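Re: your question about GMP synthase [glutamine-hydrolyzing]

S., sorry for the slow reply, the queue was backed up all week. Below is exactly what I fed in.
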Amino acid sequence: TVLVVDFGAQYAQLIARRVREARVYSEIVPSTTPVDEILARRPSAIILSGGPASVYAEDAPGMDPAIFEAGVPVLGLCYGFQLMAQALGGTVDNTGAREYGRTSLSVTRSGSTLFEGTPDRQQVWMSHGDACSAAPEGFAVTAATDTVPVAAFENDERRLYGVQHHPEVLHSTHGQQVLEHFLYRGAGISPTWTTGSIVEEQVAAIRAQVGSRRAICALSGGVDSAVAAALVNRAIGDQLTCVYVDHGLMRKGETEQVEKDFVAATGARLRLVDASERFLTALKGVSDPEQKRKIIGREFIRVFEQAQAELIAEAGAAGEDVAFLVQGTLYPDVVESGGGTGTANIKSHHNVGGLPEDIEFELVEPLRQLFKDEVRMVGQELGLPDEIVQRQPFPGPGLGIRIVGEVTRERLDLLREADAIVREELTAAGLDREIWQCPVVLLADVRSVGVQGDGRTYGHPVVLRPVTSEDAMTADWSRLPYDLLARISTRITNEVPDVNRVILDVTSKPPGTIEWE
Ligand code: XMP
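Result:
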């Protein structure tokens, strides 16, 4: 394992991902972790991340220099580079000269371990105020910029390396190569972390955890729960039952996709609970978004608990063996809820409003170590179809929060049709990957005047909300081609009764959220 020590910028997750792209397993530890704890995990290498602080700031997070004496290869990046320089006797100046953004880096020494085979001048991404002016004794300076005389150094004998820039950022054109050189050449690690090895490792771990007992899994139709279920199914087969609650708020074809495609690809045992009537009744007369969410979450839990009780009853004497609940928790959730080991302090993450807290199950979380892109790769490895593995995000409360106003069966049907047209056209235009997601929202409480055929109509508008995003925290509206928009508009107003207007949402996030409710 390569440990990435997180000094508080957003870069640590990115670094960990890039290391894994180099097919080396990596995890993140907070910079407050004591060095003996870090070393006790026997890392094959350590990477010190960048961070927002100046090494001169009073409350700057530090690093016990013992980390450099343990014989473990270390790579310092940006702030980590400066900490390293300072700890080992180099000079870091608080000059106020800053470099930010794309910068030209000159490799000043041939035969450098990190820069081998990369151009003498290359573009890198910089973000720093302080700068290193003298490398520690025994270190060779390997690169410089116009502003910074010591932009990289290395000591092959001690296997200590540092660069001022951010190789993990795509703007650093040879960054991945620099990272790989550190891992393979500097630290002598072999690239063995592959999708196949992840599956093998997880299957063995799940078998060891569950033994001959049973597990259940709530399928939501999303990527994470599908891949988690497929993985557990690969490990324990019929000891797993997947429960899919159809709340009637899914999009066209989605329930069938779970029912047919998922089962066909995995052979998993599936229990489908049609609860749409129950959800509709509970939502009657409700138009407040938060209340809708609460009701949908609450009903989901009730239905799921009922299904679970039935399963246990059916299992008869073996019922108490239904001891495990499968969850699609991902590594970013683990990191964001404080990292840590064990499952106790980790939030139970589920995208349908959360499962009950008093649940007496042990959790099986086979995706706890994985980033989203790795989850997709594992899904592919397990033979899940693209429609499931490459699926765009869709909120747990489904179309229930895309009808502004009360949710009724008629309105759901309208919205389902409009949404299906939009998805069809986006796919035909080859834009599925480019677009993060495209909610279609029915303004059910708004009546707009139109003219269709010879008569006036009073219909409803639908809103298109196509966005591009990296992580849904921020987003921009997608610049869809006009002819595509025209096609979508024509089709919706022709094919969906009662909809006589199509509106495009051109708001970024912030200030507008992705969903309307
Ligand atoms: P917003 O609307 O907050 O959405 O910009 C960010 C991302 O979260 C999804 N979303 C939800 N997902 N339950 C979910 O499981 C919800 O209640 C919910 N609300 C929003 C949204 O689709 C987007 O991907």
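Confidence is low (pLDDT under 50) at residues 340-353. DSSP finds 14 helices and 22 strands in the chain.

Happy to talk it through on Thursday.
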